[in-house]
Amino acid sequence: MEPANGRDTDFDDPHGDPRDHPSKAPRQRNRDGRAGREMSPRSIAGAIEGDQPLSPLAMNLRQWRERRGLSVSALAREAGVSKSTVSELERGHGNPSLDTIWALAKTLHVSLGALFVGHTEGDGSELKRLADAPVIAHESTTYVAQLMAGWRSSGEVELAVVTLAPHALRHSKGNAAGVIERVVCVNGPVDVGPVGATSRLHQGDMLMFPADQAHVYEAGENGARLVVVQQYPAAE
């Protein structure tokens, strides 16, 4: 996609004490024809059991605590939470309130995104379903915010709204080296991604992939509308 001017924005610190719901959505890769699911926000902790890998929150919380040179006790004390809460979160257990997560993030001097962002696949792509995204702000049934992505950028960031006609197929030869693209489906479904490795996005889903390679956008019979964010590497 050719870039369009724009900037990304940050969430304001929300109020309230939401309770989250367990995730029922499996992580998927590559094209699939699955119908969209109703929104079922993931537990903030992303509780992991058995031999499954630790959630991004568990791994990131420990990494940031160690980077700041804090013990579990010190982090708990400065954040105003119990030591057992921090220990449980670092083991991938528990279902903390949003206030607890905000307190930990502020104590560690990081954004919520820094605690939730996971690792990408080997090819640099990452598919996130709306149903998997943790709730970061919630006010009854009138307002719900879910964290889809968070990142630091030393280069330019551009945002565009893309509209595809029914059955439209858009090929891109690739952008400049090092460009990362994040595509959020507003209306769809739509197939997006590197040639030969596209993912089907439904409303609210997001795909991140290296955009410096050939990639496509292919709409279905209803057409599609996308929000596309392009992140450029720092200028030398």
Automatic annotation (TrEMBL):
Residues covered by region (Disordered): 1-51
Domain HTH cro/C1-type: 61-115
InterPro entries for this protein: Cro/C1-type_HTH, Lambda_DNA-bd_dom_sf, RmlC-like_jellyroll, RmlC_Cupin_sf, TransReg_Diox_bact_type
Composition-biased stretches (Basic and acidic residues): 1-40
Source domain of life: Bacteria
UniProt key word DNA-binding: yes
Presence of the UniProt keyword Lyase in the record: no
Keywords, in A-Z order: DNA-binding
PANTHER family cross-referenced by the UniProt entry: HTH-TYPE TRANSCRIPTIONAL REGULATOR, METHYLPHOSPHONATE SYNTHASE
Protein name per its UniProtKB record: XRE family transcriptional regulator
Organism: Microbacterium wangchenii
